[in-house]
Fold each of these.
Amino acid sequence: MRLLVSEKEEAITLRRKGLSYKEILEKVPVAKSTLSVWLQKMPLTDAEKAILKRRRESNISVGRIRAAASLHDLKVARDNILFETARKEFELNRKDPFFYVGMALYWAEGSKRSDMFTFVNSDSDMVFVMLKWMEKFLGVNRNDVHARLYIHKPYAHENCEHYWSSETGIPLKNFRRTVYKPTNLLVKKRPNYKGCIRIELGAVTYFRRYVFWQKMMLEDYRKQG
């Protein structure tokens, strides 16, 4: 009986220090039902509740930190493998002028703020060249590519999505919802304007390969002076 009294007092002390039931059971070897009976009528002061809350938040934070660290390690490992692949691809393509054409186009008009390979332009010829480059060097086909049209409201009735699908070969089913840009104009100012098309690839590896190629290209140019 004395042993149980001693364990009960220890359990109460640990609880007041902010330990959870699980943590208390690791130190006081009793049944969980017994511990619940001991502690259910034990009111916590505001200070004790604050300690318990901080401990819970701390445990959550530690878990998130560990998860983030694990994801970071995976990303580093993935990038190391992808870098070696990109280096081999760069060596294979470095003498092809078209390789540098696409690199320059994306550098000028592609998105660099996200991990997605995304290219935006209103020039259908330029978009066509970019798509051919993506097919040749990234190994994609038009069914891999998604698109979104950005256009002003006065052009909405023209179904410019069909125009861009025809020009690019990207299936209409791969077009995301059109974004209508705000304007004070009620009529078309440029009759032949068909909006800006954004083409994108879903997998992050496409963008990472481009980033590595760009760095290798710059290294080459710097070495050449």
Amino acid sequence: MDLDQLPEPIIQAPLAGGPSTPKLAAAVGEAGGFGFLAAGYKTAGAVREDIRELRSLTDVPFGVNVFALPAPAPPGGKDAIERYAERMRAEAARYGVEPGDARHDDDGYEEKLDLLANERVAVVSFTFGCPDPAVVERLHEVKSDVWVTVTNPAEAVQARDAGADALVVQGFEAGGHRGYFEDDARAEDLGLLVALRLTAVEVDLPLVAAGGIVDGAGVAAVLCAGAAAAQIGSALMLTPEAGTAPAHRQALSGAGPTRLTRAFSGRRARGIANRFMAKYGDHAPAAYPDVHHLTSPIRAAARRAGDADAINLWAGQAYRLAREEPAGDVVRRLGAEARTAVRDTARRLQ
């Protein structure tokens, strides 16, 4: 996958958990960008169906994003999870459901690798960790490029050494889950431009910049800083092709602040602040995916009820710049705006 050959230097973020749809990936690809399907939280069979639907909609290449194997459950974590589960009982009763089973699973990792080895998609990307070099080699054998999400230069070096073809450099501004290899609260959080520049001088791989990019000026900025393309997520959440829940759409049309929280999944993620985040954020243990499974029935019930106060309203810090328009129009508009921004900047530097 040659990023320099994309008509528009725009990558669709995978957007796991609902917003990702075959129609969204197809629309982005048809407009000259590069679309992704999210395999996270889905069975291998459901991912297969998404791939087949996407291929029925377009012939353009696309990628599939996979959650890397989770870290082992932390020592002593069981007690913390049980205490959090007790807090969730009253919350679950509020919506007439029971808390979920706080299991520590691998999201069907091996089954999804087998599927992708058979489906031979253009790109397989990994989030939440670095795949083993043998996994990378297996995907290379079927002509799939491998991208890895990184948040700092040390992770970038590890991904390069594993054989990655490109890196998605995620800044602190990004919405949704942080892509840390190790979700350690002591880790330094880097803004996108800092992470991008530090990574660019450390590894010689194509870089995709992610985090807080919602307009063409943001695209131009990261291209000037060394990225081969910009990955956008919040910019696409209001499109008709996205599977964004109605309550989430309404929140994205507002102006609430974003915060990082473990409350919904046990892993730090950025979303629009709401009641659930404020009430439980200080109590949630660092236990992913256990907490995700624990809170999942509550969030599903709140979505059905249209209650934005108990769902994860993932959004990047610049989400207020997003517009409600077709995904293809977003891609083309951001590309045009980026070209204008680059021309204006070039004139200023003459």
Amino acid sequence: MGRFDTDTIDDDAPTSSPETDSDMNVSQARRVIKRGWGNVEQTKQADSPFAQRLKVEEKPIIVKFLEDEPYTSYRQHWVERQGQKSFTCLSDMHPQGCPLCDAGHRPSARFAFNVALLTEDGDTTIKSYEVGPRVIDSLKNFHQDPRQGPLPKHYWAISRSGKGPTSQTNHQMVRDRDLEEEWNIAPLTDEALEQVKKQAYDASIVPIPNRKTLLTIAAEELDYEN
């Protein structure tokens, strides 16, 4: 996070009077510069050019969908190699196509939602909930269900059971009235919800790889000869 106004600090500068406008800056700063694990996540993602993915594990987490639909859908190659392993497929983006597809590597469909992750300590962070075809079908059914949908209507407890190819992502609808009693989490205020929506991702956050890079990876990892 950058310093206010300039990147230098004058130790001899006079302190602000409580009556000056700068007192409002201090007040705003105190809401940002604070302790807690939630603030760690907020600070990390503020400096990151990539979407911060929602990590789903066995222990349920509580999220609020911020929109009725995915903010982006795309295809992704996953290549087992050192360093970066995932690459956005170029087959529909580049006039010469995608080198990884040409090498016989099959991409997988990815769908990404903006969600607010809530914690018991009151912190809320924006996350990108990225899912595959099986989960997107389930979410579409939830969204269209008159009792549970649309997705942003309620909160959702998300968890994962099983391991590897047999793992399953589980979604449990949580009504506002049950959130605090059963999960010890306070519902988002209208103001807090609007603030987190201002941080929502869009399709521009998806990294588009250089075709030459993919050609190199195809040659090194998939024995592809152009």
Amino acid sequence: MDWKSSIRLFGAYLKLERSLSEHSIDAYVHDVQKLASYQTLNPPVKSPDEIRHQDLQAFLAYIHDLGLNATSQARIISGLRSFFKFLITENLIKYNPAEQVDMPKTKRKLPDTLDADEVDRLIGAIDLSTDQGMRNKAILETLYSSGLRVSELTGLKISCVYEYEGFLKVIGKGDKERMVPVGKAALKAISLYQKEVRVHVPIQKGQDDILFVNRRGKGLSRVMVFHIIKDLAVAAGIRKSISPHTMRHSFATHLVEAGADLRAVQEMLGHESITTTEIYTHLSREYLRKEVLKFHPRYKK
């Protein structure tokens, strides 16, 4: 089996079986192509079924010498593991050279979050005397109430807002649907926006069911939501570097700090793996440490 055909089959598997986005598929394929290119530069060229553990180790030493950081190396290893696991599953190879490859140690960067007071200040900085202000309040309340990704927010449909049940139907990564609880404050802001603002906007063709639209009746871009939050942070005097994702991180962190079950938070965030959600336990522990330092008399001495 040659590299070209095996990579083509792998890409089809990622699309049809795992329902990954085009961006994710391109990333996986690009990482495998790195190994294929390395093979052509270091003859004798081996096909995928001829690759052994030592060949991968040599390749990883090569990308390390190129200056790739540990996070990039870990991502490439993850892609190669998926590739060779796919070939094994399809009986295209008999030996998995990536099975014993160790991940480089990476320092997990904890995301910036806002505390409850900062969230209130951010929302309080919105000018509700304008149509855009009413829309922006609904946007922020929704992000903070449900922990949506910005792409999930911009793609949110009116028909997916179940006001009576208190849920949103969200289309997440890989076109996977999930039901996410939404709070009363967010539902109230959404309802006011629809009745007082959106109803007066000339909606463009094909955008009828999109909840959040601009003045021209077209769905918002991710960049526009980013700018809305950046501008509000300045108005609120918040000096942290924040983005729409900060609202998602804050949503999850505040739930974990309050004692929410990690599996429930995983479900709400749409994380495929609980490991991804576990980052919020680190944030919670840091919060607890700061609280002890602040209030315990013996920690002050």
